[in-house]
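Expect chain and fold; thus:
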Amino acid sequence: AHFVESGGGLVQAGGSLTLRCTADGFTFRNDAMTWIRQPRGKEREWVALIDGSGGSVSYAHFAKGRFTISRDNDRSMLYLQMNSLQPNDTAVYYCRRRDFYDDWGQGTQVTVSP
């Protein structure tokens, strides 16, 4: 499996970003997908999960009400819409499958200024 994350950038607090993940090397629609983030100098933390059909989603407590995970199975794309961003959302964001120990992509940097 191979993942390419994009869509990160610098945004002011309160702003929005949409992250994208292009996946290949497996049958995308068969697998639950997650977004995971890693703030600099800290451990990786789970952000959101979506099942293969897109019909079931779940979020970390800090993402509820602000972030929306979605997927396009025809394009093998995963998305994370992030609203009301805060400085503590600053991190590198990664996508990967929930049930496999895939190699990490390069991630996409999200930086939120005060």
